[in-house]
Amino acid sequence: MNTRDERPHIATIDFEGFYRPLFPTDAECKQFSDRVENAPDSQRPVKEVFHQAARLTWLGDRINEIAAGRPALQILFYLITAETIAKLTYRFEGRGQSREHVHAFFEKLCSSGDQSILANAFSESPSRRALSLSEAVDLLYDVRCDVAHRGMYYVFNLPIDEHDYPQLVILGDMSVETMLTLGTLRQIVLRGAVRTCSMIMGDEPVPPR
What we know:
The protein is mainly alpha-helical and 209 residues long. It has helices at 15-19, 26-37, 45-66, 71-89, 98-109, 112-119, 133-150, 182-200, and strands at 122-124, 167-171, 174-178. It has a three-stranded antiparallel sheet with strand order 1-3-2, covered by helices on one side. Strand 2 (167-171) and strand 3 form a beta hairpin. Helix 4 packs across helix 7 (133-150) and helix 5 (98-109) runs antiparallel to helix 7. The protein is globular, with a radius of gyration of 18 Å. It starts with 14 loop residues before the first helix and ends in a 9-residue tail after the last helix.
């Protein structure tokens, strides 16, 4: 009997291949990946951001294989990814400040286009008032905390895809509707990781936290 475990292992991630969907061509992806992998010591966080974002997102992706239809579990990993990127970028070595760094990732390191997506992702029901970017990040962070601190992975839902109906979500005393999908949130996080790598490598300044 063959007892060899054929499941994919996190140590075998092809980082260039993992990020390939974010780039227009193979050549551009390879060029960017090579820049990261050969970055000088003065840009040390760039490789950590590039690798850790891929590893943590990869783990989040695997959750759906064993617990399909439980997006809160994947949101936990995607928010941990966002927090990790911000803490590595700002060289934070203390304890705590998780919420603050998740806000820093989405509000400082992500592009204005992705910020706009999140700023229009949730609307209060029945008033239809759109949550601000900061409120949307808080909502996602609260979902992360419900999973991490209370094991409540079964309450929060998102639309399956962009063709699904808007999802009504109840968090505490607040009811919101959303068309945000896990795939969109995943892409925002990965695009934010790539943009952060570019900033660390000097393509544009890293904004103050």
